[in-house]
Amino acid sequence: MSIRSISVGAKIPSTIVYENSPGNQVNLAEEVAEGKSIIIGVPGAFSPACSSSHVPGFIKRLRGFNEKGFQKFFVVAVNDAFVTKAWGDALLGSTVAGAQIKFLADPSGAFTKDLDLLFDATKFFGNERSRRYALIVEDGTVTKTFVEPDNTSVVVSDSANVLEEA
């Protein structure tokens, strides 16, 4: 994690992201203002590691996180709201996890930029994208960060590691 990236003790920025459509604005600072939440950042919806291991790991371990008091989960991608909705629908299907996990679009990367977690992915994705990360947030304040040092691996931010450290 770079020194400038969001750190323990920081408040979540109130930058707007979107759920399901461009008309449904979400202020993550308000969403995580009370209780224990996890924000999961991914380089791209439908990308292999994001779809096969990173996000599915959190879905698989949802009960374990719930037992530790986590009730809200947010998956943020620098994609448009229609893409993140379709991706969330594909990953969640009819699971009960859908009531707790929201898939959010950060189409311009503004929220991710405010976290200082953007990286130049133009060679692969055509624009800047989010580093892979997980943030534990309690009452609006970041209490733990799990940011992949190489931007895209699933080691530090792996759900098993996050659950163990939570």
Automatic annotation (TrEMBL):
GO terms for biological process: cell redox homeostasis; cellular response to oxidative stress; hydrogen peroxide catabolic process. One of its GO terms (cellular component) is cytosol. Pfam families: Redoxin. Keywords: Antioxidant, Oxidoreductase, Peroxidase, Redox-active center. It comes from the Eukaryota. Residues 6-166 form the Thioredoxin domain. One of its GO terms (molecular function) is thioredoxin peroxidase activity. The active site is at C50 (cysteine sulfenic acid (-soh) intermediate). Thiol-specific peroxidase that catalyzes the reduction of hydrogen peroxide and organic hydroperoxides to water and alcohols, respectively. Plays a role in cell protection against oxidative stress by detoxifying peroxides. Belongs to the peroxiredoxin family. Prx5 subfamily. This is Putative thioredoxin peroxidase. It comes from Scheffersomyces stipitis (strain ATCC 58785 / CBS 6054 / NBRC 10063 / NRRL Y-11545). The lineage of its organism: Eukaryota, Fungi, Dikarya, Ascomycota, Saccharomycotina. The gene is PRX1.
